[in-house]
Amino acid sequence: MLVGIREYALEQFGPMAKTVLEEWGVRCCEDFGEIVFNMIEVGWLAKTSKDSRADFENGYDFDEAFRKPFLPRSKQTIQAPEAKPAQSPEAKP
Question: Which of 18, 49, 20, 55 is nearest to 36 (CA)?
Answer without folding.
Answer: 55
